[in-house]
Design goal:
- The chain folds into 2 domains: 38-177, no CATH class; 183-369, no CATH class.
- The chain has 11 helices and 15 strands.
- The chain has helices at 22-34, 38-55, 62-72, 77-85, 100-110, 121-131, 134-145, 158-162, 191-196, 247-250, 280-287, and strands spanning 6-7, 14-15, 167-169, 175-177, 183-188, 199-208, 215-223, 237-242, 252-257, 263-266, 291-293, 311-313, 335-341, 352-358, 363-369.
- The structure holds zinc ion (3 copies).
- One zinc ion is lined by residues 327, 329-330, 332, 358, 360-361, 363.
Amino acid sequence: MGRTAQHCKQCGRIIYFDGICISCRAENERKEILAWSQEEIDDAVRKICDEIKETGELDKESDVFTKLVNYRDIDTSEIAQVAFEKQLFYPFEMYKDASDEIIRAMLEMLSQDNVDTMLGANHLLSCLAIHGGEEVFRSFMEFEKNPRKWREKVYVNPSVYATNGGWSYDSSGNALKTIFDKCYPMVKGTPNEKEHSPVKIGVRTREKCSHCGCTMVNLMEIDGRDSRLQFLGIDGVIKAKCCPNCIMWSDDHFCRYTVNGESEIIYEKEPFNTENYMKDEGIEEMASNSYILGETPVPLRYAADWEGGSSVGGFAFWIQDCVIKHCPDCGKTMKYLAQIQWDTVLDGMEGNAYIEICEDCNVIAVLHQQT
Ligand SMILES: [Zn+2]
Ligand SMILES: [Zn+2]
Ligand SMILES: [Zn+2]
């Protein structure tokens, strides 16, 4: 017996259970936490600390912790203190505002050949990456130059771990940012507002994909001349083009763009499936979404969670590991630019798309991840 289709009681989309859809539930939770007073936040932080003290873990309160960090950018120094006492290193964001003493102690642990925690170097590197700062930066470079024994057990270099915190460094030791330090959410608007929005998602083009024949879309169009988007440093309109069918099968591709809105896909390899599963109705549904750029900036991690939605700048929500591509032209680490949560523009489409940029070479990377 199949489940019967019904409408979400809040937004009207088709769901197969009683009540409101997952994205409306997430939106309601977000609104609730955005409305919390400082007192309510302090109470929640106390509860988080109590759980860690009592159980040595963050489980029951973990969800509220993530939301407080993402939506309210809470100070985590107190949480880091109790977590460190219990040698608890997950979730990594607990160490965002850890004290200098704790950071030094963690770096000291990593300076040994063998890291004596249950989870090893992996988690320590991730926590330190989130914290960032001069001392962590210098130590990461040193660990990379003179690898300790634990390096055999972790998959990538410290410079790659660093990208979890939005920074990294090149082979000459120059520090670099892998994120923009402002974030705007994509929010629902009217057709008229969409007409004037400097950022649009899923715009239909006249081109067909050379691999599968699907209609190509501009996954995102960004007009950097809007005053809100000055922080991007893009003097014109850029378009991240993609075949919404092939992106599912190819993980990533690059586009060469001009600030006049030209964009050309550079495929390095053929996608491993070239059958077109994307019907024209799908393209139409995607193109008719009502998302516009939000009026005011939000904390950098605002969209860094399941149901985080689409956003420009700040941190992405990586469904798998954080992946910052290297520019195919200059070889430098690219910068994360935007995220699109697929099912907000096309019902039933899984995962997120991510856009990264090298502004020196006018190259965009489009990535896709799903569970
Ligand atoms: Zn809904
Ligand atoms: Zn295609
Ligand atoms: Zn480049």
